[in-house]
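Database export, one record per block. Field names are fixed; values are copied verbatim from the stored entry.
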Amino acid sequence: MGLYVAVVLDKWERLEQLRQELASQQPPLGLRAVGADALDPKTLRELNPALDRRDRQRSMARWLLPFGFAAGVMFTFITNLDTFGFAGPIGQPLIGGLLGLGSGWMGSYAAAASVT
């Protein structure tokens, strides 16, 4: 875990001076300016937890969607329920798989939001 320090400066020239002083340290320290003429706070991972949550959701969806689809198809075959009998012998497991896929997608959002 890194250490972050916030410094509020009144002049842009002071920022450049501080940047040079930090670069001369051993080991060199970095400085990122946030504000009107610099980086947007919404784009910095350290300041915006929604960026990490979005990445977690995408990585969870990568494996939950296929497993959800397979679980939906298997559930349809195992239970022998004719819930979607109108779709026929091929369409019924396909609809079950799509419902499982949707469940996996919703689960990826729930899992990503629950991790802090």
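Remark 1: Residues 49-79 form the longest helix (31 residues).
Remark 2: The helical segments are 12-23, 49-79, 88-114.
End of record.
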